[in-house]
Write a structure and sequence with these properties.
Bound molecules: copper (II) ion
Mean pLDDT of chain B: 90
Number of helices of chain B: 9
CATH superfamily of the largest domain in chain A: Cytochrome c oxidase-like, subunit I domain
Number of helices of chain A: 21
Distance between the termini of chain A: 53 Å
Radius of gyration of chain A: 24 Å
Strand content of chain B: 15-25%
Order of helices and strands of chain B: HHHEEEEEEEEEEHHHEEHHH
Largest sheet of chain A: 2 strands, antiparallel
Oligomer: heterodimer
Structural class of chain A: mainly alpha
Distance between the termini of chain B: 80 Å
Radius of gyration of chain B: 30 Å
CATH architecture of the largest domain in chain A: Up-down Bundle
CATH topology of the largest domain in chain A: Cytochrome C Oxidase, Chain A
């Protein structure tokens, strides 16, 4: 088979070629300006930028638009070639939202493993005090990459869930803009390549926050980090537009907003944030790129700039971004609890609006990351109040979850275990938030392992656990096969306690004085045992995730056939065969009831064949 | 109803144990500043609400998991309960009240830890990759170690010469980023050490390659120890005479009444004394030259500094206890303090 028939390979070749062309172009411009042709930084950055754009062309993500621009006809029929093996679709531009969802999901899992591997490496270094095997520059780069690659993984995981699930849940046959959807996925790939290429260009020792002036002085790798984030952020913006339009315009007849599956509410709130805030991280990074290449002193105080300005721009995205990471996961929790408790979601309306509330309040709290930054001191108290308000809609979710399982008939297959684990872990993440939000205690906690522990609780509780729950829950829908319940439970019972131990110990050493982002610590602090525990727990988490990967790969090939409504769910996607047919629903479906009326005899959510019922 | 009573009791028990666990778990480093005391009080309030809400949710969750689990052979769905508007309002309004209460407490604590003392000792902190340096403008001293007198507020005026660093001594709790960019970016931090001891200042903001090792020693001593430190930094380098005088000042207890940092005590301060015009009881004044100081040691009540009491120093009988040489050395020391 021809290797070039894979879009991915064509894209990678185009990126390589584009990078050389871009570099040559920058050198030509420099010569024209009378500068020496070679200057590593501008030449490499120019090459990287052109290379990434070339990838998008090479992979074919914009081919249809190019045809339209040339006045050629394009086809709306995207039935895959029956002569080619099915898997080849996943390595090519494909407009099916299910394929794109799985592309997002698999890429997300790969990044999760890569970033997890980085963590394993530096956790080994930290297992005891004293320098073991990692020189500080490598440590700093791995630590920074762990952060940003995980964020990439989470954004892609969010993309996976919303792309795969939203059209199915609202009874649509695809997203509103399938071509845009495919482009939004594929721009991630060159972004990831740039991000990881920083490893070979001197790394970057700035953390994922990239604060100047430190990032202005950092090695060339930091530029690759900025550019990588730029493309991954572009994906967020494009994906969000698509999702908003899809949800607003393409719901099945009868599906009013108050009858949408709750995950769709979460996806909508998430998309609104992604669509409006992501620009700011792009902007802040772009300003550092320009400061480095053209000496524009945006952030240099001695030259009219302001180093704190960056932090405002950066956190204006990066605080709401944590809601991009967790809202979909919280939506999954709200989605799965009713199924396994066999009860309606308690206070549907309140849960739905709490997502919107969190999204809205999330825009007014960014400076809580800057209480010690030296910004104007009068800003601190107002931002403390707005930050504390986030606790209210978040609390509504917890109470509603408890209300949902109360008096239910609860069963505990793997997805439910992960959902319950998510509630507990996110609870710890939520409760350890207010001490950071109150300025006085923040002054002690800021930049310590307490924050590391708190943040990992919110990410594991708000994303990782629910994401894994979602994978187990919909894996049979995606693959048509069942996963191994034994391995699934083993995964949970390894990961859940290990994670709790890891994060609680992190928070403890943080309170006692352990700074974050350091490659070594003073043995006099007496943290050696604690760090050994954190490292061991981290490895247990790593092993448990590998068990899941093994479980999924093996089950996808020879798992037991999954037929019918496996979880006895009311959601429309479980009323059709698994794996989902090419065009989802054979005929348009109609929504005739509420989504979570478990326990109400005779109630119906969707009419799968409304034309037949109206004939009667 | 029975369910709620049981769960309610369990929540109270669990809150009690979790709260006590958190308070007694030695979660915070030693308290070595006034600011730390205020901050730790707030921590305790936070631990209480964490314990309560953690117990509330987890007890309900575990109870449901145990009591409402699907028993073997059980079929069908749970009760059809869609929600309860009154409950939703309750669990919106009560948490709202609690977070506002916490924010008010937070603001009050912030006010406490930022309280200004006009007599604060000013120190300029300069951070550079990857070292700290401390300037004491009052004494003309620059040091790589941060020496602080106990129980006196210090005002740190901090700047960086390159990237952003952050000043943090865990035992003092408070933290402040140190910014580059010149005068407009000098940032202040006030703290009042309350425990004598040795601590470490560790840079808390990632500042590049050797960020991990950007550490300085912090020494908190009593007023005399601090003065000794200042002398060590200045006088002894210049002259043996001054150094010896400084030693006698400590040994004979002079500095327990006469400070050398400019603050008034039982006796007038020695800082800036030499050469100054000393107002005397009764309205006259005298220039503090060598003769005046010598006389004041040998016969303290001969001339009384305005606002101070006679009899206290003369009772010590220094004329008999000090040799002429020692007195000359003391005078040299006082001279060095102008
Ligand atoms: Cu935030
Ligand atoms: Cu530093």
């Amino acid at each position: 088979m021809n290797l070039l028939s894979s879009g991915l390979v064509r894209g990678l070749l185009a990126q390589t070629l584009g990078t050389s062309v871009g570099m040559a172009f920058v050198m030509a411009v420099r010569v024209a300006l009378g500068l020496p042709a070679w200057n590593r930084e501008p030449v490499v950055v120019g090459g990287a930028l052109v290379g990434a754009i070339a990838f998008v062309f090479g992979v074919g993500a914009v081919s249809d638009w190019m045809k339209l621009a040339r006045g050629e006809q394009i086809s709306d029929d995207h039935t895959p070639d029956p002569d080619k093996p099915a898997w080849i679709r996943y390595f090519n531009v494909d407009y099916d939202h299910k394929v794109i969802g799985i592309q997002y999901g698999v890429t997300s899992m790969i990044l999760l493993l890569v970033a997890g591997l980085f963590a394993m490496i530096f956790r080994t270094e930290l297992a005891k005090s004293g320098m073991q095997f990692l020189p500080p520059e490598v440590y700093n780069t791995l630590m920074s990459l762990h952060g940003i690659v995980m964020i990439g993984s989470i954004l892609l995981g969010v993309g996976a869930m919303s792309n795969y699930l939203v059209p199915l849940m609202i009874g649509a046959n695809d997203m509103a803009f399938p071509r845009l959807n495919s482009l939004a996925f594929w721009v991630n790939v060159p972004g990831i390549i740039l991000l990881l290429s920083s490893l070979f260009l001197g790394g970057f020792d700035t953390g994922w926050t990239g604060y100047p002036p430190n990032s202005v002085y950092a090695a060339l790798g930091v530029q690759m980090f900025f550019l990588g984030v730029y493309f991954i952020g572009l994906s967020s913006i494009l994906g969000s537009i698509n999702l908003i339009v899809t949800i607003v315009r393409m719901r099945a007849p009868g599906m009013t907003y108050m009858r949408m599956p709750i995950f769709v509410w979460a996806a909508l709130a998430t998309a609104l944030i992604g669509f409006t805030a992501t620009q700011l991280i792009g902007l802040s990074f772009q300003m550092v790129i320009l400061e480095r290449i053209f000496d524009m002193s945006f952030f240099d105080g001695t030259d009219g700039g302001n180093p704190i300005l960056f932090q405002h721009l950066f956190w204006f995205y990066s605080h709401p971004a944590v809601y991009v990471f967790v809202l979909p996961g919280l939506g999954i929790i709200s989605e799965l609890l009713p199924v396994f408790a066999r009860k309606p979601l308690f206070g549907y309306k309140w849960v739905a609006f709490s997502s919107m509330g969190i999204a809205l309040v999330g825009f007014f709290v960014w400076a809580h990351h800057m209480f010690t930054s030296g910004m104007a001191t009068y800003l601190r108290v107002p931002f403390m109040y707005s930050t504390m308000l986030v606790a209210v809609p978040t609390g509504v979710k917890f109470f509603s979850w408890v209300g949902t399982i109360w008096r239910g008939k609860i069963s505990f297959p793997t997805p439910m275990l992960f959902t319950l684990g998510a509630v507990v872990v996110f609870l710890i993440g939520g409760l350890t938030g207010p001490p950071n939000g109150l300025v006085a205690t923040n002054l002690h906690l800021h930049d310590t392992y307490w924050v590391v522990g708190h943040f990992h609780n919110t990410m594991f509780g708000g994303f990782i656990f629910p994401f894994f729950a979602a994978i187990y829950f919909w894996f049979p829908k995606m693959s048509g096969r069942k996963y191994s319940e034994t391995l699934g439970k083993l995964h949970f019972w390894l990961m859940f306690p290990a994670f709790l131990i890891m994060s609680l110990v992190q928070m403890r050493v943080g309170l006692l004085g352990m700074r974050r982002r350091i490659s070594d610590y003073d043995p006099a602090l007496g943290f050696d045992d604690s760090h050994m525990v954190i490292t061991i727990a981290g490895f247990v988490i790593g092993v448990s995730v590998l068990i899941m990967v093994w479980n999924l790969i093996r089950s996808a090939r020879r798992g037991e056939q999954a037929t019918g409504n496996l979880w006895n769910s009311r959601s429309p996607e479980w009323q059709i065969p698994s794996p989902v047919p090419l065009h989802n629903y054979e005929q348009p479906i109609a929504v005739v009831g509420k989504p979570y009326d478990y326990g109400l005899p005779g109630s119906v959510y969707v009419d799968m064949n409304p034309s037949a019922s109206s004939d009667k | 109803m029975v369910h709620f009573v049981i769960v309610g009791i369990l929540v109270i028990i669990s809150t009690y144990f979790v709260f006590n666990g958190l308070v007694n778990a030695d979660l915070l480093p030693e308290q070595a500043s006034l600011q730390a005391e205020a901050i730790d009080e707030l921590f305790n309030v936070e631990w209480f609400f964490i314990a309560f809400f953690f117990s509330l949710i987890v007890v309900f969750l575990l109870y449901s998991i145990v009591v409402f689990r699907r028993k073997p052979g059980e079929e069908g769905d749970g009760d059809h309960i869609e929600g309860n508007t009154k409950l939703e309002i309750v669990w919106t309004v009560i948490p709202l009240g609690i977070v506002i209460y916490l924010a008010i407490l937070g603001a009050q604590t912030l006010g406490k830890i930022e309280a200004r003392d006009p007599n604060a000792l000013e120190i300029n902190v300069v951070a550079s990759r990857w070292t700290w340096s401390f300037e004491y403008p009052e004494y003309g001293v620059t040091s790589a170690e941060l020496a602080l007198p106990v129980d006196r507020q210090v005002l740190l005026r901090m700047r960086s010469t390159d990237v952003i660093h952050s000043f943090w001594v865990p035992e003092f709790r408070v933290k402040q980023d140190v910014l580059p960019g010149g005068e407009a970016f000098v940032r202040e931090l006030r703290l009042t050490p309350s425990e004598i001891g040795e601590y470490k200042l560790r840079c808390a903001e990632l500042c590049g390659l050797q960020h991990t090792g950007m550490i300085a020693n912090v020494v908190v001593t009593d007023a005399f120890g601090f003065n000794a430190w200042v002398m060590e930094q200045t006088g002894c380098e210049d002259s043996e005479e001054v150094c010896a005088g400084f030693q006698w000042a400590g040994e004979y207890g002079c500095t327990s009444c006469h400070t050398i940092d400019g603050t008034a005590s039982i006796g007038p301060t020695w800082r800036g004394l030499f050469g100054s015009n000393v107002p005397l009881e009764g309205g006259a004044s005298v220039v503090a030259d060598e003769n005046f100081i010598r006389e004041s040691i040998l016969d303290p009540d001969a001339k009384i500094h305005e606002g101070y009491l006679p009899g206290i120093m003369s009772a010590q009988n220094f004329a008999d206890r000090l040799s002429a040489e020692q007195i000359e050395e003391l005078i040299a020391f006082i001279k060095s303090l102008e």
